[in-house]
Every structure is written in C-alpha cells, then in structure tokens.
Amino acid sequence: xxxxxxxxxxxxxxxxxxxxxxxxxxxxxxxxxxxxxxxxxxxxxxxxxxxxxxxxxxxxxxxxxxxxxxxxxxxxxxxxxxxxxxxxxxxxxxxxxxxxxxxxxxxxxxxxxxxxxxxxxxxxxxxxxxxxxxxxx
Length: 137
Ligand SMILES: [Zn+2]
What we know:
This protein is mainly alpha-helical and about 140 residues long.
C-alpha cells in the first residue's frame, strides 16, 4: 500500500488529493485493504484474462478495497478515483464525473512525467474497463 501511495504522490493532482486524504487515512477514518479472497474468486472468472478487479470504496465500512494482485501502475488510477469519492461531498452523476476527471488528469500527468508509463498502459490498461460502479450495482 505504501508503494502505491508513493506513485500517487508523483503527480500534482495526486499530491493535491493526498493532502486531503492522508489526514483521514492516518486517523484511520478510512483504510486501504486488499479485496477479500472470496470476492476475488467470484469476480476473476467474469473478467477477461489479466484484467484487474480494480478498487471499490465502501462508505459503510470506510474501506477502499484494492486488487493488490494487479501492477501498481494499473491500480493507482483506480485508487485515485476512489480517493476522490472519499473526500467528495458531491452526489450522483457529478460525483462520478468528478472522480473520473481526477483519475484521467492523474493518468495524464503520470504519462507526461514518464513516457514509459504510456507504453505500459497501452499494453495493460486497454483491458481494464471495469469500474467500481459496475461492482456497486
Ligand atoms: Zn466512482
């Protein structure tokens, strides 16, 4: 988890987000956990090969679940998306747009910072279409 937070901190939008997120995190008002194995077992067969389950924010339990079996370069944008949900007060469609906007900006910033990341995403990210909202449905 340490490693993925460091990756998030590499971009301006990630650092911006962490400023609001980390105080909650250090007070344990939100925790990061790996998905329960039972959920992974259930979802993995539904996904194309190599695709990650991603991340989900469960407000009730104040937990962001992460598929830690995936590469952190893939997981980081998912985590960013969920972190926006944690700190956002927006509702409905606006809430989603807000999270996707930050997720997209973060990914863009990582690409600009590290051209290799772009190639890495092309190789891996095109298969990653699943969002938390699909899981929440
Ligand atoms: Zn969302």
